[in-house]
Every structure is written in C-alpha cells, then in structure tokens.
C-alpha cells in the first residue's frame, strides 16, 4: 500500500476515534474506548474493501457490515459520518431522545441490517446473510465485527460450525481482540492464537494481525477476500481506548465517556473532516429467485383426524410451490415438525441448522434481511433456547416466522423436557409479535399462509397428536380473528379455548348441554392480536368466561383474554397447566393438568 | 483386562440393550436405538470406573453420572436395574403414568442430579458439578454422556471453554458418536477427529475410541482418570441400534420402539439377570465448606437515593459473610449487577463465567446439586439467553437464584437491546418459580436474603438507577407479601406497582390527592407468589385497579394481578411498555412508555 494511502488511513482512523470520543462526550454515556480499539480495522475496511452504495442502501449488490459488538456504535456512526450519510450535528445527537443514533445500532438506520447490542448475535445473523448470498448467488460479502469478550457466547460457535461446515467464503469475521471486557481482562487476553485454534478447528481460515497496522490489516482483508471454500476470521490484537493515554489499555474504562474529551481530541490530533468514498458494487442484474405459481392448499375433510403439525408441513410445501421467496429452516427435527415436506419438495430452499436453535433463528433473521420469507421450526420447548435472538428480532422488526411443534402436555409420554409450556408467554411478550395457535388442520394450513405476509416476529404453535378437523376447507382465518363455535342466547358462560383445548371445550359444551346448561365456545386461534370484540361481547352477554389452555397459567391464552376484557370486569376462570407433568398418555396428561373436558365442566358448574 | 472381565462386560452390555428394547417395547415409545449405541460405554464405566454408593445416593463422595442425551433413558434405567436399585417390574413401568421412569430422566429418581432431555444441557451442568468438586476439594468425578447431535448446541462450547480454560480434570465427557441424529446423519458422521479437533482447541485432552470395544473403552476411561490439569473428552464411534440388524446404523429408527422386540431380544442372546457391583467411594470426612457468621445487612436511610442493584451487591456480600454455602456467579457484568461486592469479599466463592449465560445458569444448577446456594446475576435482558436452562431448572426443581439487573426502559440511553422487558413473563411461566421485584434498597437487601432458603428457581429483578429509600431498615418482606403504601376509606382506585413504578405511583397519588382524589398504592414486591388477599381487598373496596410496570404488557405484573382477582371481576387498567423505546433519559423513557406518574394520573382520571 502506498505511503499516502497509509497516511490517509491513519488520519481516517484518528478521525473515527475523535468522533467516537466527541459523540460519547456529547451524550454523556456510551462506549468510546470499545470504538477506539477497532478504528484502524474499520478505516481500512471501509476505505478499501467494502462495496456499498450509500446513496442506495437497497441496492441488492451492497455488502453487509454487521457490528456484532453493537456497543461500538460511536465508531459505526463515525463511519457513517465519514462517508457523508450523517452530518456532524446528527453524530452529536447520539443517544438523545428521538435520535436515530441509539446507544446500540438498530435498523432505524437504513445501513443497519439488524439490531445488535446483545453480544454474540451479529455473527450468527451474518451467517444467515451469507447463506442467503449463496442461495441467490449474490456478489456481495458479509463483514462482521466482533469483540473478543463475546466469543464466550455459545451462539458464536453455533455460527462457527455452520459457516465452517458449509464453507461460507463470502463471510469475513473481524475480531477486535482488545483484551479487556466490561469487567476486566478477557479469558484469553491478547492470545489471538487461542481464538485462531478454535476457529481453525471449526474449519475456518484464520489470520492473526496487529489491529493497529493499516498495511497488515489491508493484507489480511485482501487475503480474506481471496480465500475460497472457507470463511475467514481475522484476529486482530488491539488496545482498548487506543490513541489516548488516559484510557488506552486500562481497566475500568469500559462504557464511559472520556473524562477530558477535549484533551483526548487534541492528543488524537484534533478534529478532521475527511470524507471517504466507498466503492460502489458492480451492477448486478437481479438476485436469483425461484419460480412461484398458484397456491393450492391441502384440504382436510371435516371429521378426519390430522395433526396440526402435519398440516403445517403440507401447507408450507404448498406455499413453497406458490412463492419462490419462501425458505424453510430446521433444527434437526424436520421429521417431527413436518417441515420435511418442504425439504423433499424444495431441497435448495431448505436449510438444516442441526440442533442449534440460536443459529436457527439468527439464520432466519439474516435471510429475512435479504427479502427471503423464512419459516424456522423446532419443538416449541426448544425455541426457549433462542429467546434472546427472538427478543432482538422484535427490536429489529425482523419479519421471521417461527413454528413450535409438540406444544403442551398433550404430547404425552415424552415428559416435561419436550413440552412447550412457556412458549405463548415468551412469544406474546415480544414486541409487535403475532401468535397463532390452530386447533385443526385446515386452520393450521390457512394460518401458515397468513404468516407469509406479516411484519415482525410471528409464531405458529402446533400440536403433536391428531385432532379432529372441525373447520371446512376454504374457511378464512384472518390474524386477529376468532371462530364462534357455539353460541346461544341462553349461554350461561363462554369457554375460550385454542388449539387442542378447543376439542375439549366442545366436548364439555356437549356434556353440559345434555344436562341442560348451555355454554358458548370460542376458538381463539389468534392469541395475539386477540379478537377483543368477540371477547367483549361474550363478557357483556354471559358475563362468565372460562379460559382453557395447554400452557402454564402465566402469560398464555388466559392472560391474553383477561387483558382484552379487564376494563369491563367480567368473572373469568382460568384453566391452565399448574402441575409438573411426568410421563402419561396425552389424554391422561390433559386430565392430570385439569385442562380437559371434565375440568371445563367442573369449572362451569362452579362458576354458574 | 482379563478375558473373563471382557466376557462379563459383553454380557452386561447385551443385557443393557435387551432391557432398553424391553422397556421401550412395554412403553410403546422411547429411544431404544440411542440407548443401544452407548451400552458398551456405560457397561465399562459402571462396572469399572464409577464410584457410587447406590444404597446412599446422598453420600457426598459419590461420583456424578449425567446423561446429557436424556433420551437414552432406557439405557440409564437398565443401568439402575443392573445395579439392583430398581426391579424389572419397575423397568417395565417406563413412560407409564405415575412411574418415576419418565421419558427423559428427572430427579424424581434419587440417582439423577438434574432433568435432561433438552439437548446440550448435561455437559454445562456437569461443568457446574465439577466446579463444585474443585471448590469443596471433593474426591468424586463427574461423568457426562453426550450424543453427537447435541454437540451442535452452542451451550456445549460454552461448557468446553469453561472446563478447558479452568482445567477441570475431574470431568470426563463421553460422546456416543453414533452418526445418526433424529432426522438423519449428523454433520460429521463418524469423523471423531472433527470433534477431537474442536475439543482439543478448547484445551481438552481427547481420546478417540471404538465405542463397542470394551477393552479400548476401559483404557480410555483409565486414561481419563489419570489425566491431570485438563478435562477429557472420549469420542467413541458407535452404531445406533448396535446389536440388532433390523435397526443397526439405519436411518428412520430414532425414537421408536423396535417393531419385533422379541426377535431383537433373541438376537441379543435373550434376557439376562446380571448384577453389577459398583465400587463404593472411599470414605470422605466432609465436603469443604466455608465459615459463616452473623448476618449484618446493609441499612439504608429513608430518603436516600440508592439503586436496588447496589443494595443487592452489598446484601449478597453480607449474606456471604453470614453463610459459607453461598456462592456467586457472574456473566462478566459484575460491575453492573454489583455482584462484584461479593467477588471482592469472597474471591474463592465467586465464579466468572464470562459472557456465556447458558453456562452461567447451568453452573448454578450444577453447584446447587452439591448443596451450594448459588446466586447467578447478569442483565435481566440477557437471562433470556438461558431460558431453556431456566425452564429445565424448573423441571429439576433446582434451587437456583437468578438476578437480573437493568430491568425496563428506565435504564435510559442504552436502548432496547439492554432493557429487560420480557423477564417477568419469562420467569413467571417457569414451574414453581418465585419472582421478586424490589422498589428500594432496604427491600432489595431483605429479599436477597429471603431467596437463600427458597426451593426451586427464584428471580430478583433490580433497577439500574438510584431510587429513593422508602422502607426503613429492618422491615420484613416475606415472599408472597406486599406493602400497603397508601390506603384510605375514600380511595377511588388502587394503583398496583412494583420496583421503579412504585415511586411513580406515589408521585401520582400525591398529585391526585392535591386535586382531591384519593387513591391507594400497593408495593407488590412479590410478583409470584402474589399477595392475593390484599389485591382481593383492594378489588372489593375500591373496585378499580391500575397496574403499572416497566415491562411489556404480556405476562408481567399486570397479568399477575389480573390472575389474582379475575374471578371477582373488578375493573383493571394495565399500564405497561407498549412502545419500542429508543435512547432517552430514564425519566423520558418512563414518560414515552406511559408508565410514569403522568400516565398513572391520566389512567385514574379516565377510570373514575
């Protein structure tokens, strides 16, 4: 690299440090020292390696730059200033109310793919973007900046395995090994070899480099670009707070603005106003997409016994035929979730992530940033493994579709480890989420299709065992709706059910009717958003509601119903799984948990 | 090894296979083929290496045997039969209602430490047991059996890093590399070298072995026992369903009983009734424990401004001085959670798990099995990373104490990635959990102590910023209780708050009182169990409740209150965080989320 280029890079890195210090000083908080360590790395990357049209963030040929160490946001925003897409004034709005420049980056900024700040997430999401790149034969590269502390997260190694095993050579990880975590020294300090051995064992090409030497950094990035068949990890030894003696490589300086920012800026050579011209990507005709066609949903005959998970699998395959943008992701249980129907039909658009649920969800997020429509499925219970990713997908407003099978005690003999009993609570609490829980095969198939065009995180809960088909083929089930299955003017109460308990509620209603007691039955297939109008009507007419769910009493259907009617004040009895189940048959489990037909009858009799 | 010993081991392994086949056949479900692959490994381990007094499972010198591949429960139960602690009749009760022999093992069996069945958990928990072994200078060893599929879980690599870096040579991992997962071939098939390279890179000693050769297995286990300074991973190539041609090394045979069990039993040489005598451990005087003393809680003056997280740290240090069995675990944020107070005072009992929340919770579970009283703390938001472990701790009834700091939007500028907004929903849904949320420093200190003697999973939610001390030192806060902060006979409504919103509620009550409107204020520091009596009284007297929480509307305080009073039918208005926060000051955040004093005043005015 020419002397003048090196000089420019040195100046640019100094500017990035200065602006990081200034932004944090203006905010009175933030992470300048974590930004300063990576300034040289990002200066070289931006000026010589990234291909990005900052005038058109939607250009499909643009590279992707993901700050997995989201707390280095001052550095990221300083980069945005250096390329001219934000002003110095906006830079100084960092962390202030209303500013797009939040404490940790979010996609409110058009150049940010996903929200980061929960460590260990950017790399797995980057793997998802790189998977999409391979699928669509994209010319773009994915660059991920990680801190060294976050390499302790298991999700990093799920990503390392996925990327290494599938040879994602469009992915480059840059690790800012600044030796100091939030609390003190990291486990491996500056032993970049320790990290290199680990990534190497997972099949990556690794490069150890001085993270403050622009020439070496440039060579490493060139080598990364030229490496074929393997992802590359650049392990860069750096100094936290590099460039300012008061903070450089010192403990206790994490996540704080510098005490004397003006002195620091002077030490760094003062303010600069360099502009970087980032190379635009080559023109790329079109991302590869797959052909679609007419949607021909499977149809199930009323009265047949079909598991909702089976209907999900068949509907997903039908959707895959109709829409070329649908992809399916599996946590090595596709034979159980029935996503294998899709795998057989569209092997190119099916992704096996093995038993790595964090990477499963992150891959969906990554592919969604590229416009794919991902459906990721595993057991409902095991989605708990990825809750932090799902939470952050909510922050990102990432349009991902999650499917949890084997919900509730009704799975039977396998016991509590396999039962999704907290999933409704978990998914409902996610920002702007949609939570759907079909009771029969036609409903499950229709809701599978409904999910395709939803914004944000959506969730479909399916049941292991076969349940009777009660809704005819062709019936519509809009999100936010419900089905009135029983209603009469003489109803003494209304039973509100979803999924498997709908069938228990119908049986209970029949038993009660035989004894002269009429009750209404609602099928609340849309748990969030919930059909408030129909619940309010039931609350004001019968005045007595019984909710019944194959889920813990906290945060599920019952709470959703209460939330909808609480300002009216009807009497509500909640039936839910209070016990710790062991092994038993499905019907024994429902009875032991007191969410079966007999429990419903007893609750109605007690209430009226 | 002598010929006759080898012959016995072959017979024993055959018996374990036969009994696994029989148990699954009797149940009509289960995982016999996953049991059969590991039968030789477990036969050798049990007959020659494990030290365990089966007549006294509470003997502190006993080894620990953890089936991380919990679905191999037929094999585990066949082992228990072979040592004579369960009968053949009980073996055949496998997976039947009421049987202790559940589909996946749980601590209902006295020889089982923790529930497994969610893959990738047994090893991290085993690491926790081994950490306890080192702390108490125990003579016992920890043996963990993993499947190969579950090595895809990131939690395995969190465990590998923790054990490798700290050189836990009392831990041996045995991996049953049977090449076939649930759905089909694993990523690495029989390439035991791929796994060996990975564990080796993380600092483990590794041994590759034929998992059906008892002599070689014995040598490997001896080598594991003799290895100093490093944990050992034995990577054993095996055949799923080994011993029965109809299923051996065949796809599509996972998780199903054999079609012709009698033929299979005959092929395996028929039923046997061998008994194994497991060597008892040497006598060991006493686990090392630390001295305790008097409990001297920190005291905070009413009116002072103190963060509840600070009070947690100081109280934990005080508790550590009073009780030698208390240990603290950190996810590399002890300076934020304030667990560093304990770290300074009791470095031997403080464990840094770095940013690996799954291993953090698993280590707590492992240490709890040894009688330690663990407190594990990180940001409330990041506990979502470990939700599957927390859920399984509930299944295990594991007495672990979790502490989540930086709850809610009130953290301010850092933005949504750092805000615990789903933690109450997540923690409340866990079986038999306790959820505590103090509003001031004296309450936080007292609740920290209350947690020490709780069964099951307990959770303390703390706040980042300083809040006024309103409860005098010495006040008691029993779990399940609450504090009536404002009450009069002329109350028009009752505001139900917890944590930071208590102060907003008091301010709102003052504002309203100035305008002639009296409202009650309840401090619900115990979110689960909740003080139903006081809520019922408020519901029946004022008839109007306003709940206000710094949490999502789903599954938190508001839902807990509704659950308590829903059968009475008062009118309830829930105030909670509906928006997606950005960066802003704490008070701006509370206002934007409409959970501040002004929002409460407006809600009261609307309601009455």
From TrEMBL, chains A, B:
Gene3D superfamilies in the record: 3.40.50.920, 3.40.50.970
Any Pfam family: Transketolase_C
CDD domains, per database record: TPP_PYR_DXS_TK_like, TPP_TK
EC number: 2.2.1.1
Record InterPro entries: THDP-binding, Transketo_C/PFOR_II, Transketolase-like, Transketolase-like_Pyr-bd, Transketolase_BS, Transketolase_C, Transketolase_N
Domain Transketolase-like pyrimidine-binding, chain residue ranges per copy: 306-469
Cofactors demanded by this protein: Mg(2+); thiamine diphosphate; Mn(2+); Ca(2+)
Coiled-coil residue spans: none
Keywords assigned by UniProt, alphabetized: Calcium, Magnesium, Metal-binding, Thiamine pyrophosphate, Transferase
PROSITE patterns: TRANSKETOLASE_2 (PS00802)
Presence of keyword Metal-binding: yes
GO molecular function: transketolase activity
Subunit structure: Homodimer.
Family: Belongs to the transketolase family.
NCBIfam families: PRK05899.2-5 (NF004559)
Protein name, entry field: Transketolase
């Amino acid at each position: 690299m020419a002397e003048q280029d090196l000089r420019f890079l040195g100046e640019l890195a100094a500017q990035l440090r200065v602006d990081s210090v200034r932004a944090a000083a203006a905010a009175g908080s933030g992470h300048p020292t974590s930004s300063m360590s990576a300034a040289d790395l990002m200066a070289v990357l931006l000026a010589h390696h990234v291909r990005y049209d900052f005038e058109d963030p939607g250009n499909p040929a643009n590279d992707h730059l993901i700050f997995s160490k989201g707390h280095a946001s001052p550095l990221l925003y300083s980069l945005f200033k250096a390329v001219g897409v934000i002003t110095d004034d906006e830079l100084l709005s960092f962390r202030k109310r209303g500013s797009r420049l939040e404490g940790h980056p979010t996609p409110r900024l058009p150049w940010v793919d996903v929200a980061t700040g929960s460590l260990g997430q950017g790399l797995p999401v980057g793997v998802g973007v790189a998977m999409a790149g391979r699928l669509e034969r994209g010319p773009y590269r994915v660059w991920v900046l990680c801190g060294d502390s976050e390499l302790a997260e298991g999700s990093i190694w799920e990503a390392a395995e996925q990327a290494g095993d599938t040879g994602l050579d469009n992915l480059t990880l840059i690790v800012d090994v600044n030796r100091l975590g939030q609390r003190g020294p990291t486990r491996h300090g500056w032993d970049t070899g320790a990290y290199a051995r680990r990534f190497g064992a997972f099949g990556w090409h690794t490069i150890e480099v001085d993270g403050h030497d622009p020439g070496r950094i440039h060579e490493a990035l060139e080598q990364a670009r030229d490496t074929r068949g393997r992802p590359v990890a650049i392990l860069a030894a750096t100094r936290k707070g590099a460039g300012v003696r008061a903070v450089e490589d010192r403990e206790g300086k994490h996540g704080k603005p510098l005490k004397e920012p003006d002195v620091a800026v002077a030490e760094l050579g003062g303010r600069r106003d360099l502009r970087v011209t980032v190379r635009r990507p080559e023109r790329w005709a079109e991302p590869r997409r797959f052909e679609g066609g007419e949607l021909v949903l499977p149809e199930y005959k009323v009265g047949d016994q079909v598991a909702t998970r089976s209907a999900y699998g068949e509907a997903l395959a039908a959707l895959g035929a109709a829409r070329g943008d649908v992809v399916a992701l599996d946590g090595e249980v596709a034979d159980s979730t029935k996503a294998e129907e899709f795998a057989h039909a569209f092997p190119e658009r099916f992704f096996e992530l093995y038993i790595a649920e964090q990477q499963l969800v992150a891959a969906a997020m990554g592919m969604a940033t590229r416009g794919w429509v991902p459906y990721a499925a595993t057991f409902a219970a095991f989605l708990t493994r990825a809750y932090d990713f799902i939470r952050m997908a909510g922050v990102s407003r990432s349009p991902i579709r999650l499917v949890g099978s084997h919900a509730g005690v009704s799975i039977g003999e396998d016991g509590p480890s396999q039962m999704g009993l907290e999933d409704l609570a978990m998914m409902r609490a996610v920002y702007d989420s949609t939570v759907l829980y079909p009771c029969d095969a036609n409903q499950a198939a229709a809701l599978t299709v409904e999910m395709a065009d939803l914004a944000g995180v959506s969730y479909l809960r399916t049941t292991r065992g076969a349940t009777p088909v009660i809704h005819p083929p062709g019936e519509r089930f809009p999100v936010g709706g419900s089905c009135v299955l029983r209603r009469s003017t003489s109803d003494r109460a209304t039973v509100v059910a979803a999924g498997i308990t709908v069938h228990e509620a119908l049986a209970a209603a029949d038993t009660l009717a035989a004894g002269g007691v009429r009750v209404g039955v609602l099928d609340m297939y849309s748990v969030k958003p919930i059909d408030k109008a129909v619940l309010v009507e039931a609350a004001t007419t019968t005045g007595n509601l019984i909710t019944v769910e194959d889920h813990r009493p906290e945060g599920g259907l019952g709470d959703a119903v209460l939330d909808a009617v609480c300002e009216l004040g009807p009497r509500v009895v909640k039936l839910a799984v209070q016990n710790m189940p062991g092994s038993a048959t499905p019907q024994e489990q429902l009875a032991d948990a007191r969410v079966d037909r007999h429990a419903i009858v007893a609750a109605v009799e007690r209430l009226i």
